[in-house]
Amino acid sequence: MKVIVTGGAGFIGSHLTEKLAKIKKIKKIIIIDHLQDGTLKNLNKILKNKKIVIIKKDIRNLKSILKVFKNVHCVFHLAAIADIVPSIVNPKDYVDTNFGGTINILEAMRLNKVNRIIYAASSSCYGLTPSKGVNEKYKISTLYPYSFSKNVGEQAILHWSKVYGINYISLRLFN
């Protein structure tokens, strides 16, 4: 089995990749990361693993990533620009990467007939929440460009699922 981890050099992506590398059924793990937020240092423990292939690409460029998705079984999509406050100053960067990049991932999947994605969504889509009782049924309230960009990425995945039969799991991660 061949899988892709976008944002695989980031904090969460690198730990996920370490776990995936231990699964015998997985023969190849392709990390797509532009290495601006993530770093190869996060992958030090597994850089020499023969299963790992690191491709320095930006998910905002569909043409540059399209061929990478050939014969892939599943995509773990963690690539994003994170952090709420900077998104207020540079909203376009967040929308271009977190939404536009997600559209590119979905299109690369569709064009290569990859039908499984696990998406790192964000709990920030709930806005300002009480400390207890938040779950996936809680009201969506995207107060900032970051939360908006992550939520519309999640909505795009839901749409591609309905229209193109892509199976998905969306995880609204909390920190």
What can you see in these coordinates?
Helix 4 (91-111) runs parallel beside helix 5 (145-164). The relative contact order is 0.15. With 175 residues, the chain is α/β, with parallel strands linked by helices. The chain has a six-stranded parallel β-sheet, with helices on both faces. The longest helix has 21 residues, at 91-111. The protein is globular, with a radius of gyration of 16 Å. It has five helices and six strands.
Features:
175 residues; alpha/beta; six-stranded parallel sheet; 6 strands
Molecular shape: globular
Q: Could you spell the SSE succession in H and E letters?
A: EHEEHEHHEHE
Number of helices: 5
Percent range for β-strand residues: 15-25%
Low-confidence stretches: none
| Overall mean pLDDT | 95
Q: What is the percent of helical residues? A: 25-40%
Q: Give a quick account of the main beta sheet: strands, pairing sense, barrel closure.
A: 6 strands, parallel
Q: Measured on Cα atoms, how large is the radius of gyration?
A: 16 Å
Instruction: Tell me the distance between the termini.
Output: 31 Å
Strand segment tally: 6
Structural category is alpha/beta
Q: How are the strands of the largest sheet arranged?
A: 3-2-1-4-5-6
Short description:
The protein is of the alpha/beta class and 175 residues long. Helices cover 35% and strands 19% of the residues.
Topology:
Elements: E1 2-6, H1 11-21, E2 28-33, E3 52-56, H2 62-65, E4 74-77, H3 84-89, H4 91-111, E5 116-122, H5 145-164, E6 167-173
Parallel strand pairs: 1-2, 1-4, 2-3, 4-5, 5-6
